[in-house]
Amino acid sequence: MKIAVLGTGRVARMIGGGLATAGHHIVFASRNPAQQSGLPAPAAEAISAVGDADVVVDAIPGAAVMDALSMLGPAALAGKILMEVANDLSPNFELNYPNASLGAAVQEAFPQTLVVKTLNTVQAPLMGNPSGLPSPSTVFLAGNDAVAKSTVSTLLAALGWDPGWQIDLGDISQARATEHFIFLSFAIAQSLNTTNVNIAVIR
Amino acid sequence: MKIAVLGTGRVARMIGGGLATAGHHIVFASRNPAQQSGLPAPAAEAISAVGDADVVVDAIPGAAVMDALSMLGPAALAGKILMEVANDLSPNFELNYPNASLGAAVQEAFPQTLVVKTLNTVQAPLMGNPSGLPSPSTVFLAGNDAVAKSTVSTLLAALGWDPGWQIDLGDISQARATEHFIFLSFAIAQSLNTTNVNIAVIR
Fold this sequence. Notes:
2 copies of one chain form a homodimer.
Chain A: E1 2-6, H1 10-21, E2 25-30, E3 43-45, H2 46-52, E4 55-58, H3 65-72, H4 74-77, E5 81-84, H5 102-109, E6 114-118, H6 124-127, E7 139-143, H7 146-158, E8 166-170, H8 175-179, H9 182-192, E9 198-202
Parallel strand pairs in A: 1-2, 1-4, 2-3, 4-5, 5-6, 7-8
Antiparallel strand pairs in A: 6-7
C-alpha cells in the first residue's frame, strides 16, 4: 500500500518504520523534505506525499493536528483513509476535547475523509512492537467506514497486532473512549515506571 | 472490620455482600432501614451506621454522592476511611468532572476524611468476583493516605482481588485517570456484548 506519514517524531518513525519493514511504500510528509535525515523511508512535500497515498497516517502531536490537516486542505484528504493516532492534551495536561474527541472533530471537519482512530492507547515504543510484552495486549479501532477500518486492521496486523488482539469499538464517536484513556495510560506508566506496558482486555 | 455501606443498589450489595462473606461486620446505611429487605447484611440509619464504622464504602450512584455525603456532614465522616467507587456521569452520559474527578472533589470537600478511589474501573458483577474471568485482571487505587490505601487493599483482597492484581496509582488526583476510563469501559462492554470483562495491565 502507498502510505503517507504526517509527522517525523518518535510515533511517526515507529509506525512508518514498521510499515516499511512490512513491505509497504512509505513517504514521510514534511515541510522540509531535503533537510530530513535518519528517517526509515523517504520524505517528500506533504501535498505530494498525500496525493499519491492510499492511506494517510496522522502521527503529529495532538494539539497540532487540526492546523496541519487544514493546511493540507479537505480536497487533498478527500477519499483517503486517515489513520489518526494522536492524543490531544493542552500544555497543562488536560484534554482539549473533554467529553468529546479529536478523532470525531477531525471527521466532522473533513467529512469526505475516512477517519479511523487507533493506536492512541498504546505507548509509542510498543506501537510497532506489540510482541515486546510477555503476553498479548489490546489495540482499539473506531471509525465510521467498515472498509477503512478493515484496511487499518490489516496495517495493524503488519505492525504485529494480531487481529485477535484488535477490538473494533464502533463509529468515530468512540474515539472519545480511547482518548479519555490517556490519563490512565500515563498513570499506569508512571506508577510502574515503564512505558513497556499496555492493557489487555480479559473476557 | 466495621464497615458501613452507603447505598443499597447492585454495587452496594455486591461489595457489602462480598465483605460480609469474608467475615467483616457490614451495616448498610439507609434512610429507611426498616423498609429494606433482601440485603446481605443489616441496615441502619446512616448516621448510626457511619458512626460505628472504621471504613465507609461509598456505593451511591455518582451524581448523588456529594449530596448524600453532605447530608451526613464532615463531622460524621472525619477520620474515617472512605472507599469511593462511583463514576459520576450526567444524564446525557458525560463526565460531570471533565479533566478532574469526583474522587478529588470529595477529598477537597471532606479534608478530614481519608478518601481512597477504587473499583470504579470494574464492571459491577466482577467487583466481588474477580475470579470470574479466565485470567487475572487489574484493579486500581488512588488516595492521599498510605495507611488508608493499605486498609482498602486488604478489603480488596477479601473481595478476591489478589494484591498482585492491585495497582496503586498515587494520590487522589489520580482518580481522574480511573474516572476518565468509564467511556472505554462502556465501549469495550458494548463492543463485546458482555459485562464479564475487565482490563489487565501487561508489563
